[in-house]
Design brief:
With 335 residues, the chain is α/β, with parallel strands linked by helices. It folds into two domains: 3-119 and 297-333, ATPase, nucleotide binding domain (Nucleotidyltransferase, domain 5); 131-296, Nucleotidyltransferase, domain 5. The chain has eleven helices and ten strands. The chain has helices at 34-37, 45-66, 88-105, 114-125, 165-175, 182-190, 214-226, 232-257, 273-286, 295-298, 302-316; strands spanning 3-8, 13-20, 25-32, 76-84, 109-113, 133-138, 143-150, 153-159, 262-266, 289-291. The structure holds 5'-O-[(R)-(carboxyoxy)(hydroxy)phosphoryl]adenosine and zinc ion. Residues 11, 139-141, 166, 169-170, 181-184, 187, 267-269, 271-272, 299-300 line the site of 5'-O-[(R)-(carboxyoxy)(hydroxy)phosphoryl]adenosine.
Length: 335
């Protein structure tokens, strides 16, 4: 059986994983430098890059050991590495490491789009996926609705015109004096609050599939100043409901226009409880299957990069050794 080694270093997670060609995860290792960034309220690119340099070697070693593989094992068909989008100083570490391993071990490597990696995550957790699939990909850096006719075949229907959903969570959390990252904390608080107590405007009601979250963040700031008697849990619940409402409304209208077999959630914000419940309900309404990822599969990981890399390696062949890192690589430009 052939396997692919995946490497992911696009942001603050240093990750390596081994996935076989049936999309089974054999090993998956992750180290995050998030503790170094908390005090700054966001990822500090230089610190992230330095952490990757220190961690990448041991993380790859552990992933190989966990899979019982020697680096020269003939089962290793290739190395898949995130080459964009992401922080340039972080991407360069993983990409350079992958090129070095490729040369040293004599195996091909392939550069993978990080967002396409997220789209492959459901294949690692569900067997017998049925297509087409509508995927809502929401993270700290991206928010997109994607129509997938099959693995590796996708059309971006809409995306955020300003902040990503996770970014809005992090900014609102910062305004409320909560820690970084803000998503998990707001989600936890929201469970004990009442949505609608803080009056917030309904945003992005247009008929397209694009999102906007920066106005909502400003609205939370204004509304909390005006309605200073609304408690923290109610603020969290009101904001969370407004984010979910916008995402779910766009998903609903995409479901009305495109015939699909399932809805998938992906990215860090896919961990959000209100969003998960909403997607499950929407899937019921339309009689389609909902694919809600495990929490480990929501966050960045190397197994999803290995899965996308396996597909790309077989469909397009290996990448050249002079492949650059592409910090702004759009999913729509991946063919
Ligand atoms: O995908 P991810 O791990 O990293 C990238 O941005 O690529 O996503 C992290 C984002 C952060 O903005 C974090 O606040 C958000 O996901 N997040 C959540 C939840 N858990 C993490 N947002 C809302 N609710 C959550 N439960
Ligand atoms: Zn991501």
């Amino acid at each position: 059986m052939a396997v692919v080694l995946g490497i992911e270093t696009s942001c603050d997670e240093t990750a390596a994983a081994v996935v076989d060609d049936d999309f089974h995860v054999i090993s998956s290792v992750l180290e995050s430098s998030i503790d170094q960034h908390r005090a700054f309220g966001g990822v500090v690119p230089e610190l992230a890059g330095r952490a990757h340099v220190a961690t990448i070697g041991p993380v790859v070693r552990r992933a190989l050991d966990g899979a019982g593989l020697d680096p020269h094992d003939p089962a290793i068909e290739g190395i898949a590495v995130t080459s964009g989008p992401g922080l340039i100083g972080s991407l360069l570490v993983g990409l350079s490491a992958a090129k070095g391993f490729s040369l040293a071990w004599g195996v091909p490597f392939v550069g993978v789009n990080h967002l396409e990696g997220h789209l492959f995550a459901p294949l690692l957790e569900q067997s017998g996926l049925e297509w087409p699939l509508l995927t809502l990909l929401v993270s700290g850096g991206h928010s997109l609705i994607v129509l997938q006719s099959g693995p590796g075949h996708h059309q971006v229907l809409g995306e955020t015109i300003d902040d990503a959903a996770g970014e809005a969570y992090d900014k609102v959390a910062r305004w409320l004096g909560l820690g970084y990252p803000g998503g998990p904390e707001i989600d936890r608080l929201a469970r004990t609050g009442t949505p609608g107590k803080l009056k917030l405007p309904v945003s992005m009601t247009g008929s397209d599939y694009d999102f906007s979250f920066s106005g909502l963040k400003t609205a939370v700031v204004r509304a909390t100043q005006k309605q200073s008697d609304v408690g923290l849990a109610d603020v969290a619940a009101s904001f969370q409901a407004a984010v979910a409402e916008q995402l779910l409304r766009k998903l609903r209208s995409a479901l009305e226009h495109y015939e699909v077999r399932g809805i998938a959630l992906a990215g860090g914000v896919a961990a959000n409880s209100t969003l998960r419940e909403g997607v499950a309900r929407l899937a019921d309404d339309f009689g389609v299957v909902s694919h809600l990822p495990s929490l480990a599969m929501c966050t960045d990981n190397a197994a999803m990069i290995a899965a996308a890399g396996l597909y790309r390696l077989r469909a397009d062949g290996p990448s050249p050794l002079d492949l650059p890192a592409t910090p702004n690589w759009q999913l729509a430009d991946v063919s």
